[in-house]
Amino acid sequence: MAIQAPMKQEIQLAIHKLNNNKAPSIDGISAELLKPKGEVMNKIHKFVGIIWEKERIPEEYYMLNP
């Protein structure tokens, strides 16, 4: 039985729990940048779905974030 990818609501809840006013992680993305909803959340959800399905981070991500 396969485990389903996280739902958009689960991702939103996890992002909402991130602390503001903290230094960004190694990828340079701060919590404040992730918190907007709408199109940004749709893209994050799609990206998480791709990672979940392929069980790895796509090579294109590394090309965009050396």
Summarize the structure.
With 66 residues, this protein is mainly α. The protein has 4 helices and no strands.
What report would you give on this structure?
- The chain is an all-alpha fold and 66 residues long.
- The protein has four helices and no strands.
- It is globular, with a radius of gyration of 13 Å.
Distance between the termini: 36 Å
Report the mean per-residue pLDDT as an integer.
Answer: 86
Unreliable stretches, pLDDT < 50, 5 or more residues? none
Structural class: mainly alpha
* Strand coverage percent: under 5%
Helix and strand sequence: HHHH
Using only CA atoms, what is the Rg? 13 Å
Mass-distribution shape: globular
Helix segment tally: 4
**Helix content bin:** 40-55%
Please give the number of β-strands: 0
Main sheet characteristics:
none
List the helices and strands and how they pair.
Elements: H1 8-16, H2 31-34, H3 39-54, H4 59-64
Quickly list its features.
4 helices
